[in-house]
Amino acid sequence: MRDGMEENYLLEKEYTVSYDLFREAYRAFQKKYIYPKSYLFMGLFLILAADFIYAAVKDPGNVFAYILIAACAAFAFREWFNPRKMRNNLVDAVREMGEPVYKICIAGDYVDISTVKAPVSAESDDNDEDIDFPDDIDPMPEHTRLEKNGDLEILEYDSFFLLLSGKNVFYIIPKEDLTEKELEIVRNCAS
């Protein structure tokens, strides 16, 4: 849906996010928001396990201490393993989805991000009927509008920008097709 403000955009660019880039960007997102909490809980469980080991050494007949050591070690392992498993599952889902075409539009006080074109599924059968949508129906979802306020943050990495809206939503903007002027516009979009 167009709202007639295309002429106010500082940047309007279409792009795709490759599987490898998504994996790298999601890992960067995890390092910022998921790993610190995970490492904190992992450390707490390991400290508790060390305390229970001390109790077990002091009183070798204390079976409850051994159970608590095993439980703390299992919880610490879970805190280490779950973020990695979550990343692998999400990255595999993105790989199966293909490489849709996205569009970013940066204006003075907001950023619009939308899916322009869904990828053609590799598993689609040639005999399948193509779905024709009427002209007044857009099969792609509406754009997401991110207001430039204190909640919008941008992190720059070697090959991409990570546009963060809060602690749960992120968008990946690859640098490879951006000019120097466009890079500067993206850098300044969160300020």
Q: What report would you give on this structure?
A:
Mean pLDDT is 84; it is low at 1-5 and 122-128. Strand 5 (152-156) and strand 6 (160-165) form a beta hairpin. The chain has a four-stranded antiparallel β-sheet with strand order 1-2-3-4, covered by helices on one side. A three-stranded antiparallel β-sheet has the order 5-6-7, covered by helices on one side. Helix 1 runs antiparallel to helix 3 and helix 2 (35-58) packs antiparallel against helix 3. The chain has four helices and seven strands; from the N terminus they run βαααββββββα. The protein is α+β, with helices and mostly antiparallel strands and 191 residues long. The radius of gyration is 23 Å and the shape is elongated.
Which characteristics define this entry?
191 residues, alpha+beta, 4-stranded antiparallel sheet, 3-stranded antiparallel sheet, 4 helices, 7 strands, elongated, disordered N terminus
Separation, N- and C-terminal Cα atoms: 26 Å
Q: What is the strand arrangement across the widest sheet?
A: 1-2-3-4
Query: Oligomer, anyone?
Result: single chain
Instruction: Note the run of SSEs as H and E.
Output: EHHHEEEEEEH
Q: Work out the radius of gyration.
A: 23 Å
Q: How many E strands?
A: 7
Sheet with the most strands? 4 strands, antiparallel
- Please indicate the percent range of residues in DSSP E strands (runs of 2 or more): 15-25%
Helix content: 40-55%
Structural class: alpha+beta
Q: How much is the average pLDDT? A: 84
Spans of at least 5 consecutive residues with low confidence: 1-5, 122-128
